[in-house]
Fold this protein.
Amino acid sequence: MPDNNRLNSRPRLLKEMAMAYGVDVRTFKHWLRKHPNIPSDHPTTGYYFSIAEINVIIHAIGEP
């Protein structure tokens, strides 16, 4: 059974990702734009980050 407390245990919304890192959604979007490994064309409202995308984000930004 997956551990739902881990960030990459399931797909997450942008808002959930920002909350996990303790920043505003706008700040989190800014962080994503600054890293070349993270695709910048990802839709940012109403869409989920896949587990693979979350792993890339964690690798680029670090653990929350």
Q: What stands out?
A: The first helix runs from residue 14 to 21.
